[in-house]
Amino acid sequence: MVKFTVEDRNGSRKELEAPDDMNLSLMETLKAFEYNIMATCGGMALCATCHVKFSEGLENLPEKNDAEMDMLDTLPDADGTSRLACQLRVDASLENAAFKICGEEE
């Protein structure tokens, strides 16, 4: 199990614990916890509606791939802490991370 803290768009923070043995993306996990994430493209890094910004743990995440970097470049509010939740796996790299959901709502 991996523990991380999620801040919703309204500012409420919650620590979650998610299984790390199912190869789920962070986007899929957030949807399973009933966070309001559009995920229009279904996790293909084509819509950026699963945009999150990390306040803790960014240094432990894998490098961004080209598709993720290209999509983040289209967002006016993206910065160095921005990632697409669909491109991150729920694994040890997310342990004790903290991030805010920024993408569009359904």
UniProtKB/TrEMBL annotation:
InterPro entries xref list: 2Fe-2S_ferredoxin-like_sf, 2Fe-2S_ferredoxin-type, Adrenodoxin-like, Beta-grasp_dom_sf
Domain 2Fe-2S ferredoxin-type span(s) in chain numbering? 1-105
Gene Ontology molecular function, alphabetical: 2 iron, 2 sulfur cluster binding; electron transfer activity; metal ion binding
Which SUPFAM superfamilies has this protein been placed in?
A: 2Fe-2S ferredoxin-like
This protein's UniProt keywords: 2Fe-2S, Iron, Iron-sulfur, Metal-binding
UniProt feature coiled coil, ranges: none
State its cofactor: [2Fe-2S] cluster
The question of whether Metal-binding is a record keyword is answered with yes
The UniProt record lists the keyword Zinc-finger: no
Record-level GO BP terms? P450-containing electron transport chain
The Swiss-Prot or TrEMBL record describes its family as follows: Belongs to the adrenodoxin/putidaredoxin family.
Kindly give the PANTHER family that the UniProt entry links to this protein: FERREDOXIN-2, MITOCHONDRIAL, FERREDOXIN/ADRENODOXIN
Q: Which protein are we looking at?
A: (2Fe-2S)-binding protein
Q: Which organism is it from?
A: Arachidicoccus soli
Taxonomy-wise, where does this protein's organism fall, top ranks first?
Answer: Bacteria, Pseudomonadati, Bacteroidota, Chitinophagia, Chitinophagales
